[in-house]
Inverse folding.
């Protein structure tokens, strides 16, 4: 296995690990006894981005923006309707289920809720070695393997015969991480991995993920609603709104000088202890609420809430405009 | 009533040595253990802590909403405008709930009745506490929906809660909590279920609409929310108050190792990047609280005395207290220095 990975990375060094182009994941809305399709929820709509080997891409946005669906589509838990997602040169969208099964070893996911993502009837040994057994990767005893994984995620090695309910939230998330890295993947989708954890435990888990990235040469898609978390862990960030990525580029650039009006509003709304408070800082609060992804606004999807709206915005959906280090989907940056 | 309240040291609410116990199959534990704090008229006090620390139980105790017989207020005093709420007969307490003290909960969908239209729920609340005919109450309710910036308020009066988004439902709750102009609003994680852009809108609303002398007790786990909303802060850890002080004292010169660790561990939007300063270990279950100081297992400054005695709330600056034997040494040092 190790040899195959090496061959891949040598044959295509300049190409990114993951290259997503115009990806669409739409969910049909069905009505009536014949389940006629009357429309689509455009959860992910024409999304383009890439992730380099060893890189962490932060994916931020508010609830319902499609960030989780995007992550699940990459892992194969949802099916894309259109577009391309090249992973090590192979297109995940057109992959047969057999080929995908093979690729699963290289791509893993960590979910938000650390309890519901662990089978309550399996002990930790079975949970963290299930994948290894599937792929016949066990070298030496399963126990030894499980103990090594436990040590790697900072858990007591002797706890492998215990069950998920015996652990705290932070420890459960460590078990999820152990399972995710057990197959030595190249890429992990982290879907809000610390959002359900207590504040004092969040930092421990974030630090663990950062350490593992280094020691295992991992790449992450780090999905979060929390810009402060993303700003600490991700080198580059993509901001999602209503199914599309509205801005992407280096994280520090986005936070210090957001370009897209939505990114500006999002950052203005994040409390930043020690800095100016809402009301004291520049007023960029957006009006109203996010429209439904089943009937997104015409043209630019943000135009209904945008403080910088122009004539063109309701008519023409902007493409990604390149602006220095960033891609911005807004007519202002034509 | 206000005169009486002012006579009591100018304090609106005075919680003293509150003890709340819960009885479970595993035994009895103290969810709140000797908590004291006070709120002045017009002040926003943040009660901050992690899940299970007792902050919500403290808030529920004020209105005597602790679910019995499992939970019990086992000791302490809660004086509101000079009256001890724990001694008050149920009928008198009923007048205070909703009228003098109102509550905003985390889940607006759970706090609103799913069976009744928004308008009816507002009108009912108004007429329960004010002598007003239906028409005037309806008019008042509609005005409040407009004040909390709900578009088409007339139309929304006829909506059922499920027809509104979470942000809109929370606006209805805020209207309900504010419209009787209570002296105290208890807000338990009012924006935790909402997106940040909606959270910012809600903060602005509450700030703009509350009367000058209305006080808020804000329960939250989020230091960012505390920073945005509060004048003073009480930090809870494992059923006890770890530290209390003004917003500036807590954020600029925290004296308790827990507060210091918490502030240092929170990812910042701007500024230093890279590894976070994590607090080691995890919050203990109430059955496994260590002796003496509850934080000592996780504390980088713990020494013998911490296991033997519960540290009192030492005053480190005027109005700034911390329950730690090392509080005086720590208070001047930046929290990142842990």
């Amino acid at each position: 296995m190790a040899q195959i990975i090496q061959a891949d990375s040598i044959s295509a060094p300049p190409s990114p690990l993951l290259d997503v182009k115009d990806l669409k994941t739409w969910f049909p809305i069905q009505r009536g006894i014949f389940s006629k399709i009357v429309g689509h929820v455009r959860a992910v709509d024409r999304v383009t981005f890439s992730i380099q080997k060893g890189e962490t891409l932060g994916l931020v946005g508010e609830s319902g923006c499609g960030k989780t669906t995007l992550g699940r589509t990459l892992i194969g838990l949802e099916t894309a309707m259109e577009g391309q997602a090249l992973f090590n040169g192979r297109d995940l969208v057109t992959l047969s289920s057999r080929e995908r099964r093979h690729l699963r070893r290289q791509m893993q996911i960590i979910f938000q809720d650390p309890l519901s993502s662990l089978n309550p009837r399996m002990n930790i040994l079975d949970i963290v070695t299930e994948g290894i057994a599937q792929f016949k990767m066990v070298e030496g005893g399963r126990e030894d393997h499980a103990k090594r994984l436990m040590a790697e995620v900072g858990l007591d090695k002797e706890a492998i015969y215990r069950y998920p309910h015996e652990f705290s939230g932070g420890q459960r998330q460590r078990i999820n991480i152990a399972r995710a890295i057990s197959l030595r993947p190249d890429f992990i989708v982290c879907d809000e991995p610390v959002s359900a954890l207590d504040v004092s435990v969040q930092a421990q888990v974030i630090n663990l993920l950062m350490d593992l990235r280094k020691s295992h040469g991992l790449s992450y898609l780090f999905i979060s609603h929390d810009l402060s978390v993303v700003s600490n862990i991700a080198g580059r960030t993509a901001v999602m709104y209503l199914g599309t990525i509205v801005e992407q580029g280096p994280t520090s650039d986005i936070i210090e000088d957001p370009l897209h009006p939505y990114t500006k509003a999002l950052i203005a709304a994040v409390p930043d202890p020690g800095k100016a408070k809402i009301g004291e800082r520049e007023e960029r609060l957006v009006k109203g609420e996010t429209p439904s992804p089943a009937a997104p606004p015409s043209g630019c999807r943000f135009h209904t809430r945008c403080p910088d709206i122009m004539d063109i915005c309701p008519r023409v959906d902007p493409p990604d405009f390149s602006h220095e280090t960033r891609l911005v989907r807004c007519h202002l940056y034509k | 009533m206000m005169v009486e309240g002012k006579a009591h040291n100018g304090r609106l609410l005075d919680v003293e040595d509150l003890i709340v116990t819960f009885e479970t199959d595993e035994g009895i534990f103290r969810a709140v253990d000797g908590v004291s704090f006070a709120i002045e008229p017009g002040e926003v006090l943040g009660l901050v802590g992690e899940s299970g620390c007792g902050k919500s139980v403290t808030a529920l105790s004020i209105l005597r909403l602790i679910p019995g017989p499992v939970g019990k207020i086992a000791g302490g005093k809660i004086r509101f405008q000079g009256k001890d709420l724990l001694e008050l007969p149920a009928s008198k307490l009923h007048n205070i709930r909703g009228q003098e003290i109102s509550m905003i909960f985390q889940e607006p969908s759970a706090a609103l009745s799913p069976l009744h239209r928004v308008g009816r729920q507002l009108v009912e609340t108004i007429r329960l506490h004010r002598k007003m005919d239906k028409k005037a109450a309806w008019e008042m309710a509609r005005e409040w929906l407009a004040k909390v910036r709900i578009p088409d308020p007339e139309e929304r009066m006829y909506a059922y809660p499920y027809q509104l988004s979470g942000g809109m439902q929370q606006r209805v709750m805020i209207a309900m909590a504010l419209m009787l102009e209570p002296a105290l609003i208890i807000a338990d994680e009012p924006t935790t279920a909402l997106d940040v852009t909606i959270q910012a809108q809600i903060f602005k609303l509450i700030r703009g609409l509350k009367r000058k002398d209305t006080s808020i007790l804000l329960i939250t786990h989020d230091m960012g929310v505390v920073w945005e909303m509060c004048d003073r802060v009480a930090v809870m850890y494992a059923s006890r108050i770890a530290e209390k002080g003004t917003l500036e004292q807590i954020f600029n010169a925290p004296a308790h190792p827990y507060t210091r660790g918490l502030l240092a561990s929170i990812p910042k939007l701007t500024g230093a990047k890279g590894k976070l300063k994590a607090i080691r270990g995890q919050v203990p279950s109430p059955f496994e609280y260590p002796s003496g100081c509850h934080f000592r297992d996780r504390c980088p400054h713990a020494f013998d005395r911490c296991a033997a005695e519960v540290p009192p709330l030492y005053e480190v600056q005027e109005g700034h207290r911390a329950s730690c034997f090392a509080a005086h040494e720590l208070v001047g040092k930046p929290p990142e220095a842990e």
The longest strand of chain B covers residues 27-39. Chain B touches chain A through 46 residues (CB under 8 Å). The two ends of chain B are 48 Å apart (CA to CA). The first helix of chain B runs from residue 2 to 7.
